[in-house]
Each structure stands twice: as structure tokens, then as C-alpha cells.
């Protein structure tokens, strides 16, 4: 929901054009909820979700660690006050010179998912800790992850064995159950895979220590989602199921769950039209679309909650689209979005739950539209 602080900011500042306004108080509450839900897990905020300096500094001051995908994100986390020991280079696809630069900056924790990546880390970050990402199916996630990252559990055994043989610290395994994951049992399946890797290597004398349980923690869009407490209880139960009383160190990497509900996009209706006289659906064009920060509407995966100044009036389904001269810039068409019939050109509307993956997905200047402006309050 748009907090009163966000509504007051938009009303008084009257920012021109589309923008995302994020309330740090909500981020603070989310961090505390994760701390309470999983008190024995270290929190590594996924910087890619929203790298605003104000967000990173708040989380660094609260004791958060950081999951980074590039040298630039590592430098952002360091600038925010995090020490290198609180930063993970979590991308499994890294140039060797970037590994070397991260090592130079003090980073000693790296993700891998194949032997070639292990060899790069061994050459450029000798002695570092590595964890191998295990492939998961992502079933139950609204934004499932592809097969781009991770390897099957049996291969992860070989990857970590190779890391050990090259003098690296074979530290553990990681997985990601898919973004906006609402099926709590997804962690059960993934932790079962992790257990297999741990046990297989333990029989060879290689003792893994850590399970990185990734992200996937959802934010509320149109449908209610389980609270952090429910995730914490379920995950702890699955940890006990698979690891008994000898629990590994654990890491979680919330991104969307940390900042998603803290942000709201303010946008304007640019045009309302039909494609024929007997068309039963209006086309409503906004001044923001897929290339302006709403890329997660791809395949209509994420359905944001939209608030209009005419809520309460009669609703009718419409096709929602962005402003660019690109036919792909359509947000909701397969499943039309119900909006008030009284909505008119020039109306300002709010798209809620847009604190994550909007400013970072916004194009630099596609069609000459400026990147999505961000205000952190």
C-alpha cells in the first residue's frame, strides 16, 4: 500500500512524469520482520532489487549483509558502510578480472555452478570460500527462474569436490526457489537436495558448512501472501527435517521481500482508445511501461495493484499499455485489467508494490524517455 508519507510526498512535491517513491520506514520494518522470522540466518540483501544508496545505507546500519551481482554492486555496498566480510559475489557468471577486483576489495565469498567458474576463482581469488548453486524447478513462483543458473545436485558434488582440490574452501550450497514464491514446500524440496550434497561430500571427508537459501520471499501485489513469520517457521521445520540437530550455517537473500512493498510508482494516463467501434475493451496507455521499469509484467507474471482517483466507480476490463513505439510494450492484455469506466486522460494513478525491480529494469533512454526517477523518503 501507498503509505501516508508517500501520498504526502506526491501531493506536495508534484513530481513531473512517472516516478517511484520508496518509504524507508517500510524497508526498516521488513528487515526487522526477517530478523525475527529467521533469527539464526544471516540476511544478505539482494542489491539488484533496488540499489538506492539510501536503502543500502539503512540496511548496512541495521547489520545487513549484501548479495551482489557485479563489481559495481560490491562498491555500492562498501560505500554504504558494509565491510567486505558482509558481501557475497553471488553471480555465477563472472569475468575473471571481476573476480580479481572483488578479491582485491576484500571479498572472499563467491558463488559458482560449474568447474570452469571454480577454476577462475581458484586463480584470481585463492583460498576463498565458494558455494555451489543447485538447480531448482521454481514451481509455485510467480516469476520462476530459468535454467540459466545452477546445476543438478549430483553435479554440484563434483563442482565442490573440484573446488576443494584446488585449495578453495568448499563452503556450501545455494539455491533459489523462484522469485515471488508462495509455495512454502519449495524450500523442503530444495533443502532435500542440499542435504544430499552435504552427505555425499561428508562421506569423502569434505565438510560443507553453509546453506544459502536464496530469495523468493514475496511482496503483496493483488493477492495476499504468507508473512515472513510463516516462511521462517516452515523453513526452520524443513531444516530440522533434513539436517536434524546439526544445522548448517544459513543465509537468506531477500530482495523483493525487503523493498517491494516499500515503493509506489506514480504514473499518468496518456490516452484511452478503442481498436474498433464494437471493441469491448478500452486500451489505456500510461506514461510508463515495460521499458520504463515495469519489465516484470512480461508474460503478465507480476500483476501489480493499481489505485486510481476514481476507485469505487463502475469497473470494466481494459488492456493496459506503455507509451513507447514498441509493440511489446503492453502490460496486461491476455488477462485484461479492471479499471473504472470514468478514468480519463490526465488522471494520475498509483501502481503499488513497485519498490523492487523497477528502477533497475528501467531503460536508459529507449524512445528518448528518461529512466524512471526515484525518490527515497
From TrEMBL:
Domain Orn/DAP/Arg decarboxylase 2 N-terminal: 26-259
A single Gene Ontology CC term: cytoplasm
GO molecular function annotation: ornithine decarboxylase activity
Modified residues (N6-(pyridoxal phosphate)lysine): 48
Cofactors named for this entry: pyridoxal 5'-phosphate
E.C. designation(s): 4.1.1.17
Coiled-coil annotated residue ranges, if any: none
Pathway field: Amine and polyamine biosynthesis; putrescine biosynthesis via L-ornithine pathway; putrescine from L-ornithine: step 1/1
Record: active site: 325 (proton donor)
GO biological process: putrescine biosynthetic process from arginine, via ornithine
UniProt cross-references to InterPro entries, sorted A to Z: Ala_racemase/Decarboxylase_C, De-COase2_N, De-COase2_pyr-phos_BS, Orn/DAP/Arg_de-COase, Orn_de-COase, PLP-binding_barrel
Enzyme class name: lyase
Catalytic activity annotation: L-ornithine + H(+) = putrescine + CO2
SUPFAM superfamilies tied to this protein: Alanine racemase C-terminal domain-like, PLP-binding barrel
Keyword line: Lyase, Pyridoxal phosphate
Domain of life: Bacteria
CDD domains referenced in this protein's UniProt entry, alphabetically: PLPDE_III_ODC
Protein family: Belongs to the Orn/Lys/Arg decarboxylase class-II family.
Protein name: ornithine decarboxylase
The organism of origin for this protein: Limoniibacter endophyticus
